[in-house]
Amino acid sequence: MNQTTINDAYKKEARERACMLITRWMYGAAIPFNVVTNLSFQSMIEAIGQYGVGMKGPTFHEVRVTNLKKELALTKDLMKDHMVEWGKNGCSIMSDEWTDKKERTLVNFLVNCSKGTLFMQSIDASSMIKTGEKMFELLDKWVEQVGEENVIQVITDNHSSYVIAGRLLELKRPHLYWTPCAAHCLDLMLEDIGKLPNIKRTLERAISLNGYIYNRSGLLNMMRQFTGQRELLRPAKTPFATTFITFS
């Protein structure tokens, strides 16, 4: 057995041990398996290998404070290219509303330009979401922060409070546009279509059949057996589109 073969066998065994310890750590920390497909995961492995034997991992303080500050500074540097693009070709401010498990209404603010979309902030808007004037103040603040001269349009949901906020924004800043979200408009259209007698009756039957199957384990197992383990899409209470997707 030559030296090359011995080295290859040693490296194979060392890699298996390292991979086992990495995966054991992932199992213990409940880390999703797909993190291994992240580009930064391989970069981390290579950096550890370049350091060599005896490397100590980051401390709690380094993870929570020191390196977090460094990563924040790096993120701000990455934002600079986007900000330059805002000034050159303009951008769109987008708001995305959702409800968490505590029934709080949260709004995400994002800025989109030709270089991509940046997440800016998420706020608890439970106390202001029903008031058009309050939402106007919130959107107006973001226009000011991004730079009025850089903003072409503000995109929001089509709720009545956003409609009022959008109109007030256009009055104050005539050069920009308020644009209702196309996906939300389609969702509202599907809601109205779902109120038509024939469609409503069909939807109710589909939802009832779905619930009937999933509430009976024997029937559910039989369905999976004859459909190759396929599942029925379970319609949500709020997104109206999912009730139509249930048919497919």
Can you walk me through this structure?
This is DUF659 domain-containing protein. Pfam families: DUF659 (PF04937). InterPro entries: DUF659, RNaseH-like_sf. By secondary structure, the protein is α/β, with parallel strands linked by helices. The protein has 3 domains: 3-57, no CATH class; 77-180, Ribonuclease H-like superfamily/Ribonuclease H (Nucleotidyltransferase, domain 5, 2-Layer Sandwich), CATH 3.30.420.10; 188-245, no CATH class. Helix content is 58%, strand content 15%. The protein is built from 9 helices and 5 strands. The protein has a 5-stranded mixed beta sheet with strand order 3-2-1-4-5. Helix 4 (132-146) crosses helix 5. The N and C termini lie far apart (61 Å). The model has no long low-confidence stretch (mean pLDDT 87).
Low-confidence stretches: none
Q: What would CATH call the homologous superfamily of the largest domain?
A: Ribonuclease H-like superfamily/Ribonuclease H
The ordered H/E elements are HHHEEEHEHEHHHH
Helix content: 55-70%
Instruction: Tell me which CATH architecture of the largest domain applies here.
Output: 2-Layer Sandwich
The neighbouring-strand order within the major sheet is: 3-2-1-4-5
CATH class of the largest domain: Alpha Beta
For this structure, the quaternary state is single chain
Q: Please, how many domains?
A: 3
Indicate the proportion of strand residues: 5-15%
CA-based gyration radius: 26 Å
Number of helices: 9
**CATH topology name of the largest domain:** Nucleotidyltransferase, domain 5
Total number of strands = 5
Task: Report, as a whole number of angstroms, the end-to-end distance.
Answer: 61 Å
Q: In this structure, how is the largest beta sheet organized?
A: 5 strands, mixed
Shape: flat
Structural class: alpha/beta
> Mean of residue pLDDT?
87
Protein name: DUF659 domain-containing protein
Pfam families: DUF659
Domain DUF659: 58-206
